[in-house]
């Protein structure tokens, strides 16, 4: 594949490496990858520039040669040697036998060659996990099928840790250690002033210490004096913290950085305190939804209970509830309990007498069924109501006036009703609610 620029971002390099990696795997599977592990080696033609110059073990890299391959060398391979790759004396192949024309050309005429995988990938292939020290890359200019080198380009990188590399040889620095202690000892109550002390060795190391709560910095960095840095804080929140001290040397060429081991530190809170006492809000009557209003400080959760005449109502554990008609004229109260890891605090509201609920509302109007003639029985259909009625009463009317004694769900018209309009008024009833009333559409009796 061809690359369109001489400078690549890491992202573009990763994208470029995928097809090259796939090609490498395919060639290896077919047993046709000739890495040129035999034959005489020619003189070094020049060096290579590593990009990026510093990076991580999982970063993609590409190397740019200081000049072109000889005209009689149409192909290249590249190998790497270093700690972990000793099993392959000639070095582990990191770029397979491929035509020079595969690669982009730098302004100096050199080749821009991306590695097919990352250094972490190569370490995994070789069966080791610790990248350390110097690693040497050799790009060999050669013919397609003759492993004899027609000239080499070389470059080196140094891993300063298992995950970080640079293209310059590191300067030897003095290692440091940092130890963190805290006073008073854990656990403490929220708001307590906690003194953190970082001891840096050797004591001659100069620099600053950052105190960390997880990844969050506590206060400002503190200058190390005679191997010690201290910080006092009262801002630790409730819970278990992982505290660390991170030392940064004033001169990284002389002393190395260090981080303390994590220090587990627990801050507890007092039992919750009532800020606003519990009370029932909303209209306290049958059918209404009411709320147990309360507030606590220091509570991590709040639970609720409702009481009828001082006795807990089974299953009523939500902050809000709809009052049942059976609670009419009874005393209703709510109880809230604030909880945290330390304890709990309860607040009970004053009792309130449940008032009569609103009148039942008609949903479907009452009606009269039957043959509307003298001598034929008329039947009242009560309609439907919200909430549902549990009983009904009836009043039959002739031309809007009540008919004496006509108070059942049925009525048989007499000759006195002939030619008159007949209606029925239904009264819907339910315990705890005011009665609802509705009148049917009139019918004319023939």
Structure description:
This protein is 7% helix and 46% strand. It is mainly beta and 446 residues long. It has 4 domains: 157 residues, no CATH class; 92 residues, Immunoglobulins (Immunoglobulin-like), CATH 2.60.40.10; 81 residues, Sandwich (Immunoglobulin-like); 84 residues, Immunoglobulin-like (Sandwich), CATH 2.60.40.2700. The strands form 8 sheets. Strands 1, 2, 3, 4, 5, 6, 7, 8, 9 and 10 form a 10-stranded mixed sheet that branches. The radius of gyration is 44 Å and the shape is elongated. The N and C termini lie far apart (100 Å).
Unreliable sequence segments = 1-41
Tally the helices.
2
Strand content: over 45%
* Helix and strand composition category: mainly beta
Number of domains: 4
Give the helix proportion (percent range). Answer: under 10%
Describe the main β-sheet briefly.
Answer: 10 strands, mixed
Mean pLDDT: 90
Counting copies of identical and different chains, the oligomeric state is single chain
Shape: elongated
The count of strands amounts to: 37
What is the C-alpha radius of gyration, as a whole number of Å?
Answer: 44 Å
Distance between the termini: 100 Å
Write the layout of secondary structure elements.
Elements: H1 10-30, E1 44-51, E2 54-56, E3 62-65, E4 75-82, E5 92-99, E6 104-105, E7 111-114, H2 119-126, E8 133-142, E9 152-159, E10 164-166, E11 177-183, E12 188-189, E13 194-201, E14 207-213, E15 216-223, E16 228-233, E17 239-249, E18 258-259, E19 263-268, E20 273-281, E21 289-297, E22 301-308, E23 311-312, E24 320-322, E25 331-339, E26 344-348, E27 352-353, E28 361-364, E29 367-369, E30 378-381, E31 384-386, E32 391-398, E33 401-402, E34 410-411, E35 421-429, E36 436-439, E37 443-444
Parallel strand pairs: 1-9, 12-19
Antiparallel strand pairs: 1-3, 2-10, 3-7, 4-5, 4-8, 6-7, 8-9, 9-10, 11-13, 13-16, 14-15, 14-17, 17-18, 17-19, 20-21, 21-24, 22-23, 22-25, 25-26, 25-27, 28-31, 29-30, 30-34, 32-33, 32-35, 35-36, 35-37
């Amino acid at each position: 594949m061809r690359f369109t620029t001489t400078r690549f971002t890491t992202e573009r390099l990763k994208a470029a490496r995928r097809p090259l990696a796939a090609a490498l795997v395919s060639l290896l599977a077919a047993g046709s990858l000739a890495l040129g592990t035999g034959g005489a080696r020619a003189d070094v033609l020049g060096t290579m520039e590593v990009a990026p110059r510093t990076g991580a073990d999982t970063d993609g890299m590409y190397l740019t040669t200081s000049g072109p391959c000889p005209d009689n060398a149409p192909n290249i391979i590249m190998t790497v040697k270093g700690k972990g790759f000793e099993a392959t004396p000639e070095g582990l192949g990191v770029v397979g036998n491929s035509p020079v024309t595969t690669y982009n050309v730098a302004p100096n005429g050199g080749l821009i060659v991306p590695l097919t995988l990352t250094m972490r990938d190569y370490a995994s292939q070789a069966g080791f996990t610790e990248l350390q020290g110097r690693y040497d890359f050799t790009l060999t200019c050669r013919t397609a099928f003759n492993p004899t080198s027609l000239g080499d380009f070389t470059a080196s990188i140094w891993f300063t840790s298992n995950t970080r590399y640079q293209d310059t040889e590191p300067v030897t620095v003095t290692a440091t250690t940092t130890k963190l202690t805290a006073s008073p000892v854990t656990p403490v109550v929220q708001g307590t002033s906690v003194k953190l002390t970082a001891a840096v060795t050797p004591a001659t190391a100069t620099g600053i210490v950052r105190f960390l709560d997880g990844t969050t910095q506590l206060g400002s960095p503190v200058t190390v004096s005679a191997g010690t840095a201290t910080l006092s804080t009262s801002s630790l929140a409730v819970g278990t913290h992982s505290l660390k001290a991170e030392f940064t040397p004033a001169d990284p060429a002389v002393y190395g950085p260090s981080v303390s081991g994590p220090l587990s530190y627990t801050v507890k809170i007092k039992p919750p305190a009532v800020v606003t006492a519990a009370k029932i809000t909303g209209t306290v009557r049958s059918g209404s939804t009411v709320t147990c209003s309360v507030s606590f400080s220091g509570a991590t959760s709040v639970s609720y209970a409702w009481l009828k005449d001082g006795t807990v109502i089974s299953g009523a554990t939500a902050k809000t509830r709809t009052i049942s008609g059976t609670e009419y004229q009874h005393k209703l109260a709510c109880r809230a309990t604030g909880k945290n890891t330390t304890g709990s605090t309860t607040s009970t509201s004053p009792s309130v007498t449940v008032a009569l609920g609103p009148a039942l509302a008609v949903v479907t109007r009452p009606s009269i069924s039957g043959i509307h003639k003298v001598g034929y029985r008329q039947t009242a259909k009560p309609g439907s109501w919200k909430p549902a009625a549990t009983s009904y009463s009836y009043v039959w009317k002739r031309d809007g006036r009540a008919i004496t004694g006509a108070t059942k769900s049925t009525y048989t018209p007499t000759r006195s009703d002939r030619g008159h309009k007949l209606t029925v008024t239904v009264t819907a009833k339910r315990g705890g609610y005011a009665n609802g009333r509705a009148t049917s559409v009139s019918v004319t009796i023939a």
